[in-house]
Write a structure and sequence with these properties.
Blueprint: E1 6-8, H1 10-18, E2 23-29, H2 37-46, E3 50-54, H3 56-60, E4 70-74, H4 82-91, E5 97-102, H5 107-120, E6 124-128, H6 137-142, E7 152-155, H7 158-167, E8 171-175, E9 181-182, E10 192-197, H8 205-210, E11 213-216, H9 228-243
Parallel strand pairs: 2-3, 5-6, 5-10, 6-7, 8-10, 8-11, 9-11
Antiparallel strand pairs: 1-4, 2-4
Helix pairs in contact: 1-2, 5-9
Length: about 240
């Protein structure tokens, strides 16, 4: 991790929150109690910043300097609010093309997906707050800067976000080996959200139940699956092909 991706120390983190720095998550040593602890926790709550209590060893992996048991992981981007982004897409008169990422944990995969999405004109990427690769400097680099040009909505509950899309007239399509037909046979022409699952477990069952169609990418060789970033690019560009 790059040094500019985090800052440490209870007072430093408190000041960063007060000055409006974009903080992805705050890691706090389990059992931490000091005079600034209550103030920190109050600020985290007021500003809706995610926090996690972790063993001291995890914090020490970031720095051995005087962190006082508190590390703030910084985000290089401002996340967007889906409640505002979705109406904005409809207001442009364009047909929505949205990407939903269900717990993509490899930062390089996320960066590559974001790059393909931006090149293909995807309107926004939706990611969950938990269980997702952290968007730091490495993600920016891997995406070739694409994440600076693409709205990314981080949501507390991915299932609720997908329901919101459905209620808004967006068709939900899943890329999964469980699909009953090839992806080129799907209809990508209308308002659409493509769901991609995690590298190891795929799309979570609750999300899969909400999808309108489940499509597979044919595998003809001996390896059982494609890299998720390649699969995402194929799905996105099938939408581009059909719409053009």
């Amino acid at each position: 991790m790059n040094n500019e991706d985090f800052l440490f120390g209870t007072r430093a983190v408190i000041e960063a929150i007060k000055t409006g720095k974009t903080i992805d998550k705050v890691l706090i040593k389990k059992g931490l109690k000091n005079e600034l602890f209550s103030e920190l926790m109050q600020l985290l709550k007021e500003n809706n910043i995610a926090s996690q209590f972790v063993p001291i060893e995890k914090i020490n992996r970031y720095t051995r300097k005087n962190h006082q048991g508190v590390i703030a992981l910084l985000s290089p981007i401002e996340f967007d609010n889906l409640d505002y982004v979705l109406p904005g897409i409809f207001d442009t008169g364009e047909t929505p093309l949205i990407l939903v990422l269900d717990q993509i944990t490899d930062v390089r995969n996320f960066g590559a997906i974001a790059r393909s999405a931006e090149c293909a004109g995807v309107h926004t990427i939706i990611i969950p707050e938990k269980g997702m690769a952290r968007i730091g400097a490495d993600a920016v680099k891997t995406s070739a800067g694409a994440i600076h040009h693409l709205p990314i909505c981080k949501v507390p509950h991915l299932e609720k976000a997908v329901r919101f899309l459905k209620d808004s007239g967006i068709r939900i399509v899943a890329a999964t080996e469980k699909g009953d037909k090839n992806y080129t046979s799907g209809d990508f022409t209308g308002p659409l959200a493509i769901v991609m699952g995690s590298e190891d477990t795929g799309i979570s069952p609750n999300i899969l139940k909400l999808t309108d169609e489940q499509l597979k990418i044919p595998i003809l060789g001996k390896i059982e699956s494609l890299n998720v970033s390649v699969s995402a690019a194929l799905m996105i560009y099938e939408a581009v092909r059909q719409r053009n």
